[in-house]
Every structure is written in structure tokens, then in C-alpha cells.
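Researcher: First entry.
Model:
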Amino acid sequence: MPYTTRRRLVTSAVAVALGATALTACGSGSGDSETESGPVSLTYWTWTPGMDKVVDLWNKGPGKKDQITVTVKKQASGDTLVTKILTSHKAGKAPDLVQAEYQALPTLVSNDALADISKNVGDAKDRFADGVWQQTTLGTDAVYAVPQDIGPMMFYYREDLFKEYGLTVPTTWDEFAQTARKLKKAAPDKDLTTFSANDSGLFAGLAQQAGAKWWTTSGDQWKVSINDAATQKVAKFWGGLVEEGAIDNQPMYTPAWNKALNTGKQIAWVSAVWAPGTLTTAAPDAKGKWAMAPLPQWSANENRTGSWGGSSTAVTTDSGHQEAAAKFAAWLNTDSDALNALAKESGIYPAAKNAQTSGAFLKPPAYFSNQADFYSKAAEIAETTAPSAWGPNVNVAYTTFKDAFGAAAKSKSDFGGALDKMQDDTVADMKKQGFEVAE
């Protein structure tokens, strides 16, 4: 990696340190002070289904009035899109707008691919929970994207089977462990849940809830703390339950897992607000039998949740119309008509607080027709989202998690070694790329 790139990465590294002071944005910001005049055409890369129908509302309404037209270009998601954005940016040909998962923002910002749009969207801050907004500011006074959808984590359980086995919905993780053991004793053929080593995002969200800060900075260096005390606590907890056989150790999203949910062999699931869609497909016979509650806490006086999923709308530094692009990004994620369309056409759970209990969210999901307050409760939980601390090589950490934790879960061995492997591989990759890493 060229030294100039490394220097930008080190400088912008402070962006992910929680509570960091403001820095000069590393983006070129060439469009920050521009005044748009005449027709403007923007291109938006996104993987969200139905986005073209949502964007039509803009093109026929506010966009038409402001002479700003947006064209949707459907893309793949995840690392594939990040790579494509960086490749296009290197050639100076990135689109005006991109959809970006929160954990990808540090990578894109570090590579000078995203513009600081704080002058154009800063007043949108109050529309979002602090922990959500922080993910798009990276802890600075800059704003690198507007939150679009979020995945606050929750606890899902079979109401009928909890009643049958005399179980109480756990409010702490200690109670969760006791519930798992009580169920296993009463019904050896059933499991409260499973630890899935193919879901790195789930583990990251659980660590986030516990207070983990995987990537921060120390002076002008990155500091990687994937095996910090908070994450060790999470790993030890789940590893202990797997080792003693109190919960299952099989991965999620397999035919066997679907069958376990559908037949009541697995009677609870630690998931996120989007779980109803998954349950509708995985466990159709259990419709109306599941309920949702807040995630168990590490101590009775705490009240916070982690995130599993979510994305934002960002403006690139290559855009020649950053002001216009930022105007669209703000509209897309704060306007009531746009948010209702996103919910209807794309099935997202909006990051904007005002949309979480209105429009499509006035009624519970059809699968949870038995829980009338599903979305009002979800909104309360979303408000407690803990801050996150993402870094520039989340993909490496996630890949190692799947390999190391997968082996540990399969053999029911100590998760501590797997966590250390995750730490070591992440640090080694950062050094290989030329990052300054504090020891």
C-alpha cells in the first residue's frame, strides 16, 4: 500500500474512536459549497429490492422540482460492492451515491471514497438514535452517510412452549443460561437456541451490546481489541453453553435449522428486528406462536442492545454534484413518503425514529399478529442501540470468525482460542496492508 494511502488511513482512523474530536474530513469535498443550477443527473448504486419504485417518487416529486434526477443501478451487496466502489473510485468513476453497510464505512472513508456531507444533512441528526447516527459520523463532526435501515437485536421465543415448560423470558444472560439448562432437563430433545458460527454479524452485535470496541485508535495508530474483556465475556458465555450441551452448536439458515424452528425443537432465537421475515419462511407452521422481547442484559440495571445488519446512503468524493446527492440521501431516509415506500417495496426497518411507529409499522408483522405492540416495542429497543467501533478490515475479522469459531463450536472446545485467532489474523492483515497498529 502506498505511503500516501496509509497516511490517510492513519489520519482518518481516529474517526472510529468513540468520542473522538473532530478532524478535517479526508474527503475532497469538492461539492460541499457548490450551488446547483440547471438539471442534475445522479447515479445511485444499491442492492435494495424495489428501490427504483421508491426513487420514482423523488423523480416525480421533489427531484423534479429541484431538477435533480436519480437513476438506480442495481448491485450486489457486501464485500463485492465495497470492492467495486473502491475500484471505480481509483479510476475516478464512482457513482454519485452508494448504499453502504455501517461496518464498511471506515474502509470507504479511509480510502477517500466518501464525502463529508455534514453541511447538507447535519440537521437530520435528531431523526435517529444516537448509537445509529454515530455509525455514519464515525465519532467525528463529519457525516459520511445518512442512516437508512437498522437491525436492533432482540430475543424471540415460542410463547406456547415457554408456558408448557414453565419457562420465564430471561431478562439477563445469567437467566438465559438457566433457562437453557431448565429446558434441556425437562425436554432433552429440545434446545433453547443454537450458537451459529456462520453468523459473524450476530457475534459482533452481541459483543457490541457487551461494550466491545474492536477498532479504536491510540495516538496516530490503530488499536485492535477484538479479544477485549467484553468480547471475551461473550465468547466464554456462549462457548460454555455449547461445551456443556445446554444449547445446540449447529449453524443457522440450513434445512435442519429451519425444521428445528418449525417443529419446536428450537424454541428461542437471538436475532434482530428483521426476524419475522425469516421466520415466515423457516417456520411457517409456528405463525402466531412466537413473541419478541428485549435482548437479555449482562446486569439487571443495563438497557442496551447491539446491531445485526443495517445500511446507509453515502455520497462519493467522485460526484460532481455532492450537494444535490446529499439532498436526495436526506430525503430518501427522512421523508415520510419515501420511508413508507421503502417499507412497502423493500421491506426494510427504517433507521429514522419517526418512521418506526407509523405507516407500515402501525400494525405488527403478520407472523406476529399475536403481539400488537411488536413495532412500538421494537422502536423502544432500537433507541437503546449501543455505539459501535468498526475498522478498515471487518471482512478479515469476519472470515476468521467463521473458520475459528466454526471449528471450536463443532468440537465443543474453548472459544477463547478462537477469539485470539480472530484478533491475531486481523492485526496481521492490517500490518500487511501498511496500517500503523499499536501493540
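Researcher: Second entry.
Model:
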Amino acid sequence: MAIDERYHLFIGGESVEASTDESITTTDPATGESLARVPAGTAADIDRAVSAARDAAPSWRSKAPAERARIGRRIAKQIREHADELARLESRDQGKPLTQAHHDVDGAARFFEYYAGAADKIEGKSIPLEDEQFTFTVREPYGVSGQIVPWNFPLNLTARGLAPALVAGNTAVIKPAPTTPLSALHLAELCRDAGVPDGVVNVVTGGTEPGAALSSHEEVDVLTFTGSVPTGQAVMESAAEHITPVTLELGGKNPAIVLPDADLDDAVFWIAVGIFTNAGQVCSAADRAIVHESIYDEFVERIVDRAESYPLGHGPEDPGMGPINNADQYETVLEYIDIGISEGATLKTGGEPGDDDGYFVRPTVFSDVDPEMRIAQEEIFGPVLTVIPFSDRDEAIEIANDVEFGLTGGVFSRDIKRALGVARDIDAGSIYVNEWFGGSEETPFGGMKKSGIGREKGLEALDSYLQTKALSINLSE
């Protein structure tokens, strides 16, 4: 799957020209070199895509669930048959190591397999009332779904929303991030090749204008957004005009509590995985290690050694860690490192660009971090770990919960009962015990507080794309 020099929008089952000649040039974040040009879509392009999705909706929703399941499995088959090409495409476009890109591609296929298995199990219920009166409920698709996808896991998160939307009987208009649009365009083509009817899946590339047009469009029936809190708030505000239901998966500032009896080797390994995977560009990253004072110094020493073991490199070369995806985020990460130093935290390692061209930042560890520092409160979205000491359980829980986010958290302890007790007190949608990034496509995922609304993944995700209708019937003569 070669990277084309120029791409088009995907509307109504085919590649089409945008309404203007303006384009966006995507770059390889490891080198800064141009990869491809994609259209800078406009509100008019969103109108065309939504119209195509609206026209396709009646036929798609009327298909038997078993047929939608068969098409879902064929999409998964297409993804698996093109797995190596998709992974290499994603690695170059996003910057992540090739192994991680392969994992994302496998997850994308798994989403379609998983939800295909649920297609013919979407059921209503009967509610007996009195005499011969009954109420029956049915679960129906909303219609047109709008999907706004971020740049950190482009293919995987596109599939995460698209698979349950399609299986539930909705059509889709996808707006990928401007820096990573290529995998969504290729996925749309694979959907067409798998037998998805024209207009059911549409992709409009571009920046703010098409995203804002999609989130405020009166013909969009349900919205899914993954990204930052400020943008999520803007999406929610736009959707409110038409009372459009929204699912939001937003930021995180996720605590990893290391209790004094933890296996330090395991804790260091998993927290490093949690913060340095995808160069820390993960909403659920383990970006706050909250470590008991009795093991604090040893933990810091070991996590610094681990951080310094990550070789940086170009994603297709499959290094330990790749670059930051784009110039804006690169500057943001470096700015937060400067903030941490100015706040008085101790920079133990990293904190500087890599030796190569591109947007590389070395794995970074701060110790002596006060919980009120900005680097301990605000999402950095980069390979920056803050290590915070605690003296007792209550203090650990207080530090963990004293942020505006509540996406994920973790606990490390040899005493599973103790670990679960602490896990129950962390305000977050997902808690990992003696691991990080636990769960799978079957596991519901979403946040509390400012980390979002609703759940992705698992059967719960179908609730975002289905509405319940009650039919009350009197059977008496």
C-alpha cells in the first residue's frame, strides 16, 4: 500500500475532488519530510458527505443484522490481508514504531470481528403491563454518525468508532486529524472493497473547518469525538444546538500508585510501557507515578535507567520510541519540560530533543514533584513522567484524585486484596492492577470527570449508536 503523492476525499463510495484546491501536506514526523497532500476540506464538503450518508442510511439500516455482520467480517479480512502495508503507512504517517503500528492494525481488525459477532444479538424486550397490554422495546440506529478522530492512533480509533456504528445500522462521516489522514482514507477503500454500499462510509480530510461543520451539522444524528478537553467542550457546545448525542473520550492525567510491597521490577517495567509507548501520546498514559516514600529513591533510579534504555528512531525501523507526531505538540512537550524545571522539579533524565531531525524528545523523568505543580496537574501528551512521593494510603488516593481528569489509573502491589481496595478508590473509568494498558477490544473504555462522556469498546459502545423505542400494544378485542 504505497503512499500516494496526492489524495482526494472519499464520498459516496469513491474518491472525489474537494470543493476547493486548497490542500494540507502531511509530513513524516521522524524527518520532517513531506509525505502526501490531502484536501483541506470545507463545510461544503461535509455537507456533501453528510448528504451521501443520509441517502445511504435507509437501505443500510434495513439490511438484516446477519448481512451487516458478514460485511463487518469482510472488512476485518481486508484489514488483515493488508496488515503489513497499513502498519508501515501508519508508522510513517504517525511516527510510532512499526511493532506498535502492527498492534494497532490488529486491533482495528479485531473491532470489526468483535462487533460483527454482536450484530445479530441486538435485542429489545417485552414488558407485560396489565390484562392484555404490553410494551415492546426495539433498539434502532440513530442514522448518520459523525466521527472526529485524533492523530495518536489514527487507524485504530477510526475502527473503534466505525465498527459499532456500522454494525448498529448507522452510516458514517469520518473527519481524521489533519496530520494523520492517510489510514482513514485507505480504510474507507477497504470498506468499499468488502462490500460496504456507497455512501455508508465517507471521509473528509482537513482541519478545523470540516470538524466544526460536522459537529454542528443538523443532519448528523450522533457524534463521537476523541481528543483534548478544550476541543471536546467545543464539540459538545456545537452539538447542543441540535441536541445531538455525543460520546467524548478526552484527556487524562493518570496515576500509577506504587505501594511499598510492590514488585519494583514489574512496576518499573509497566510504568515505562505506560508512559513511553507511542512517545507518551496516549490519553491513558501512566504519566504520574505516585510512589511510597520507602521505595521512592530506588524506584526513581530504576525508572531513569529504563528511560535511558529507549533508542529513538524512525518508526519503520522499529525503534524503542518514535517521534512526537507534529511540530505543535513537539513544542508543547518541550514547553512543559521547561515549566517543570522552573517549578523546581528535578529533571533526572531526558528533557531535550533527540539527535536526529524530526520531532524527537528523549524519554524524560522528573522527581521531587509536588502534586500541585503544573506538570503533575496538566496533560502533557508526551514522554514525560512525574514521580511523586506519598507516605500513606490516604495521601496516595488524595494525590491520585486531585486532578480534573479521570480516565485511567493503576495500582502496584503484591497484596491483591490491598491493591483492589486502592483501585476502588481511584476516580477513573479504567484501573490497571500490576500492569498497564490492560483490557482489550471487549473492555469498555471511557472516563470520569473531564475525561469524557460515554464508553467506547465492549458491548457498551453499541449504546452510543442505538436508541430505544417503546411500542405499547393493547391486544384485547
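Model: Note on the second entry: The chain has two domains: 9-250+451-471, 255-433.
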